Amino acid sequence: MGLATKHSDLRLEAACHKAATAGDPSYRTIRNILVAGLEDIDQQRPTGDAGAPAFLHGPDALFADVIPFPGPEVDTADEQDGESGDDEPTNAAS
Question: From CA 14, how far away is CA 28, in angstroms rounded?
């Protein structure tokens, strides 16, 4: 109520709205908004992308020019010989 005697109703309402939107409708915040004269300035929040273009092409188009690493070489000689390929020694006593 003390701020209503020093400032117009229009400025006070705008400052209260701005403080409530910011999530801090305390007396101190409203007073500081009025003192700084920020009640009528609508600041646009940054979008976080700094104006960079979005990559909306999907992963196939985004990574289309990436050269794949060669995979591990597979030894197929064991499979052709009919061995199980478990690399455990076989015991003749078993």
Answer: 15
Return the HEC string of 68-82: CCCCCCCCCHHHHHC
Read off φ and ψ for residue 33, nearest 5 degrees: -65, -45
Query: 72: which DSSP letter?
Result: P
Tokens 């690399």 belong to which residue?
87
Segment 48-68, tens digit of pLDDT: 566 666 656 666 776 777 777
Token output for 87: 């690399």
Q: Count CA within 13 A, CB hemisphere, residue 70.
A: 3
Angle formed by the axes of helices 27-36 and 9-22, nearest 10°:
120
Q: pLDDT tens-digit profile of 6-56?
A: 888 889 999 998 899 889 989 999 999 999 988 886 656 555 566 666 656
Which pTM value belongs to this model? 0.43
Residue 7 contacts residue 37 (beta carbons within 8 Å): no
